[in-house]
Design brief:
By secondary structure, the protein is an alpha/beta fold. 40% of the residues lie in helices and 18% in strands. The protein has twelve helices and 14 strands.
Amino acid sequence: MILVLAGGVGGAKLASGLAAALAPGELVIAVNTGDDFEHLGLHISPDLDTIMYTLAGIANPDTGWGQADETWNFMASLGKLGGETWFNLGDRDLATSVLRSHLLSRQSLSTVTAEFCRRLGIVHPIVPMSDQPVRTIVDSDEGELNFQDYFVRRRCRPKVRGLRFEGAEAARPSPGLEAALAAPDLAAIVICPSNPLLSVAPMLALPGMREAIGAADVPVVAVSPIIAGQAVKGPAAKLMGELRMPVSCVGVAEWYGDLLTGFVIDASDAALAGEMDAKVLVTPILMRCDADRLRLACEVVDFAALLGRNG
């Protein structure tokens, strides 16, 4: 069984490739919830929804987030009434958030997510990183901002000085994540090409998470979200630069440090492979289509298996 740590569009793409490559029971996908927030009285889980929609085959192919064939009557009516429209919720997407918010009054986020996945025909478990609230707070030159305020409302324009994960110290890994980390058949942990600072760091901030990864004693393989000094999608490169990290796959590998056994970088960065402490797989990592996702997933699984055999 392989445990995947994922968030964002890049995470969803590789997770879908792994889901295509692995049978039910061979994959658990743990998803960042540091991006979750309360908006218009609703509990919004952007990363969970992106990965859930992608694995269900209903994600918007143009944006990577939201649902395909979306309509926007709710947002149009909301705007006419003077409501906040800076965070787009399509009509189909809204149904997910409304029902989730209703069910969370008596069920955990893990339980609600499992039920949604069952209804959508998703056969591989998708689990939130935690059932307790953890919220990413951005320390910027405009003061402290909730993540969605920084990311969506202000379009990542403020300069970032630091990040903190409010509530992490009181949270714990979800039951599904804890079970996967302790599973006797766990063979590898794969960190998707998600933003390490925004999607992966909130997971690693959970008490005992790093220790549990180390105790699992299996290969930990990450895929770089940076190709030739640029982020494929999102603000990873901007954040890394503002926080004085090298804006390269080397900078990502250095940030993960000794957590990693192996690191997957793009062929365009092959010359940098010797600058990393982890074992490196060099291969095209840009996922433009389903075939790219499946190919990369199979290469990552084979790489992890090789590292496991080599001890």
